[in-house]
């Protein structure tokens, strides 16, 4: 469709009829929407070359399109002269696209310079402008800058929304200040009726990381009292941390409560918990969760099996890992490259080279190959026996 439009457009030009700015804007918008950015740039240069001053729609289509695919410098280069010329009143959408684009490639100085320029040009930063910059500062743990910007935002008469607050909470939690994040959430967000599950989840996770699982659990209880529905992320965080602490009873209670909350644990949920436990050496608890998963009618997948295989291998229980490997095949699951590498690697460590070679043979039959590290380990182990 766009090819036909371009063909018609160029046909009109060849016939000596010069398209106006509106026509160019429509064409640039159309080719950007289908990802034809080289064509968009060509049309832009053609338009400017003819002495036509691009309008806001043409600039918006080009800048937003190029910034979305990471071509921020090119977008800026093409519109900077138009911006400096002052012939077109640009919308905040154009400035925000440039600011967001430069933030994504960590060019914060450029992003801030554009924010200053837009103000001088009579285009006041809006909520999106501030949120883009807040997101950058909080992700980069530049909390002083974020706090200054947040206060300036409020002084400018722009009311922070739930996203603005959540960025600040995220930044505080990522800099090990969960108590400050909690106070911001309770004193400011809740007062403005803006707190959501994401806010609570961020603080709950931060308290758990800080070793204050009691505070985290109290927040979970507060959610229910305040009518904020916990989600799968809330429960996953709490269950993982209670299991890690050895409080399997509380974790099991939370797991049982999920269905009553309308949250049905799926394969990904169970696998996340199993993997978490196995990486911390709590294989027995992981096995129990794996069995619960099956009892609840949630079928494991290859990733679930691999998580448990990894747990057995790390715990030097390769025989059980092999039993699980055999079980998964009997239930119609085909082991993948990860399954084979885990088992072969553990068998090599335990000097069970005959079994390692046997599993290697099964691996090759299924079209998989060992990576260089495991291959060399197996070959070296075999040679060490030959020359012993």
UniProtKB/TrEMBL annotation:
Positions annotated as PPR repeat: 20-54, 91-125, 126-160, 161-192, 196-230, 231-265, 266-300, 301-335, 336-370
Coiled coil: none
Domain of life: Eukaryota
Record-linked InterPro entries: PPR_P_subfamily, PPR_rpt, TPR-like_helical_dom_sf
Keywords: Repeat
PROSITE patterns: PPR
NCBIfam families: PPR
PANTHER family per UniProt: CRIB DOMAIN-CONTAINING PROTEIN, MITOCHONDRIAL GROUP I INTRON SPLICING FACTOR CCM1
Similarity field: Belongs to the PPR family. P subfamily.
Protein name according to UniProt: Pentacotripeptide-repeat region of PRORP domain-containing protein
Provenance organism: Gossypium barbadense
